[in-house]
Amino acid sequence: MRASQGRERARPALEGQKTCYTIHLDSVFGYGVYGLSGGNGMTAILTIGKLARRSGVGVETVRFYERKRLIEKPLKPIGGGYREYSLEDVNRIRFVRQAQDLGFSLREIGELLSLRADPEADCADVRGRAREKLAEVERKIARLNSMRRALRDLVSACPGRGGLLGCSIIDALEKPETEGDGK
Fold first, then answer.
1. pTM to 2 decimals?
2. CATH 1.10.1660.10 is the classification of domain 3-121
3. Whether the Cβ atoms of residue 32 and residue 23 lie closer than 8 Å to each other
4. Would you list the domain boundaries of the chain?
5. Backbone phi, then psi, for 64, in 5-degree steps?
6. CA dist list (Å): 1 to 35, 77, 103, 167, 172
């Protein structure tokens, strides 16, 4: 459950008294809110700057993720002040970053987040998407290996001295592609 969905605002007993929040914790460590700030028993409430620092990203990245709907943009407090984020938002941003590091696009990450939130989703759904990403990465590696071989051939054929008129690399790049070559 998203922290913002489980957040309940307690009514202050006296004017000027701080507002408290109850956040329902996820049972899976690392995917939900699991820590408390300070020793006062109150759940951590973060400003955007603190959220960014704890997540290891910049404030603009947090705003970008909000625009892309990868994290929820909290409502502005009625009486003014800062928007409040939770530790669940930290975990969600870390999830996004780790998925990006594995090559998932923002669209694909949004789909993974939807699966993560769907109680009917199955691990096989996530595994299938990861297998598709792995196949894509393997195709890219094959293409990069082909590029490396071609560049090695060009570099080894080049004398590395003399005028550009005799440069074998320039000559090779100027040649028109023959059928079946290139992309």
1. 0.64
2. yes
3. no
4. 3-121
5. -60, -45
6. 15, 22, 26, 63, 58
